[in-house]
Amino acid sequence: MKGLVRKRNMLLKKLDRYSEFVRGSISSVCATCNRARCICQKTSSLRAYRLTYKDNQQKTRIVYVPRDQLPRIRKMIANHAQVRTIIEQLVETNIKLFKEETRR
Fold it and tell me: Mind listing the pLDDT tens digit for each residue in 64-104?
């Protein structure tokens, strides 16, 4: 039981490291025609980046991502994956703790 409490505390501390996270995905579109598959006559058009995510009502939202913020937003998306993994481990640990407490 003490081992499970220690594991839970360790996971909670690990969760603190990923305070900046966001759910979604990055897409690249043509800055001129706003399409993923460019239909412009230009051979080397500028690219714009967007973050696409679902809000609480499951409505798709799109946010423009400036080029200089692209590495940061990619790191935030990777952090979200880590947070989900840690939360799943926390859930499993809490269930094990609950089962042990009810056996007593």
Answer: 999 999 999 999 999 999 999 999 999 999 999 999 888 87
| Joined tokens for residue 34 | 């706003």
Q: SS in 3 state form for 22-88?
A: CCCEEEEEECCCCCCCCCCCCCCCCEEEEEEEECCCCCEEEEEECHHHHHHHHHHHHHHHHHHHHHH
Residue 55 tokens read as 């809000």
Beta strands in 1-104 (DSSP E): 25-30, 47-54, 60-65
Full domain range(s) for residue 82? 2-103
Count of domains in the chain?
A: 1
Give mean pLDDT, residues 10-15. 91
Q: Which residues contact 24 (CB under 8 A, 6 or more apart)?
A: 51, 52, 53, 54, 77
- Looking at residue 46, its amino acid is L
Query: From CA 61, how far away is CA 11, in angstroms rounded?
Result: 31
